[in-house]
Amino acid sequence: MRNSQSLTRDLEEARTAALVGPGKRDLRLDLLRGIGQWMVFLDHIPHDFLNWFTIRNYGFSDAAEIFVFISGYSIGFSYGPAVRFGLFIAAAKRLWTRASQLYVAHILLFLLLTAQIARTARRFDNPMYKDEFNVAQFLDKADVMIGQALLLKFKPVDLDVLPLYIVLMLAAPLVLWSALRKPNWALVCSAVLYLLARHFDWNFPSFPGGKWYFNPFAWQLLFVFGIWCGFGGGPAVRTAALSRPITIIAAAWLIFAFLIVMTWHIPALGRFVPQWLNQMIYPIDKTNLSPLRLSHFLALLVVLIRALPPYSPGYASSWLRPLILCGQRSLPVFCTGVLLSFAAHWILVQVAGGMIAQILVGIAGISLLVGIAWIATWYRGVPTLYGTETHVIRITDGVQRIE
Question: Total structural domains in the chain?
Answer without folding.
Answer: 1
